[in-house]
Amino acid sequence: xxxxxxxxxxxxxxxxxxxxxxxxxxxxxxxxxxxxxxxxxxxxxxxxxxxxxxxxxxxxxxxxxxxxxxxxxxxxxxxxxxxxxxxxxxxxxxxxxxxxxxxxxxxxxxxxxxxxxxxxxxxxxxxxxxxxxxxxxxxxxxxxxxxxxxxxxxxxxxxxxxxxxxxxxxxxxxxxxxxxxxxxxxxxxxxxxxxxxxxxxxxxxxxxxxxxxxxxxxxxxxxxxxxxxxxxxxxxxxxxxxxxxxxxxxxxxxxxxxxxxxxx
Length: 264
What we know:
The protein is of the alpha/beta class and 264 residues long.
């Protein structure tokens, strides 16, 4: 279970650009569920994920994974409990290393290691078997540098790397947004199969409402750092969700303060 209690985060505190994203924000996510996070840009989705992963520090509040309080853990230590796949297919991989080296590096998450001792032959068979599960033939390209793979292949590899140690929490930050519709669909299906098989509690940011309704067990919509909708997919239609979603986007636009234009 993921428990977030009284989380607060303000950027540029004490300056004219001060921007409070969260103020005593609390949330509980049950084990072995997939939760889709929706909301307009700037509503706090990515900030929340960065606070959970540790790439951002909160001003106050606690984050617990199971019975472990990870609030004060550095990002590297949290990586033992949390996996993350980003929007950019190249962010979760090392493009200059080959597929085998990337997968070997994922097995050493949270450990100190030297590149010369990166590959552990004892893991090779498992790596090959894991690569086979995504059905893209990557198991036959172990020595291919990742920079030569397509975006979809890199994202699949990134997904495998993020889950190879079976994290307690998997964060998917718009992980299909940079892909074409066909590849996006393939990645979502492979993601769904993997998290169900491994029983990984998953938080997914998406702007694709159909993906939220099809793959998530719970849908949460954020706006101005607050939960404005918390519902199960079977309790709402795509049309109703679409209406609420775009109402919040328009609401956010209306609250934006226009910049002053100086006329010479």
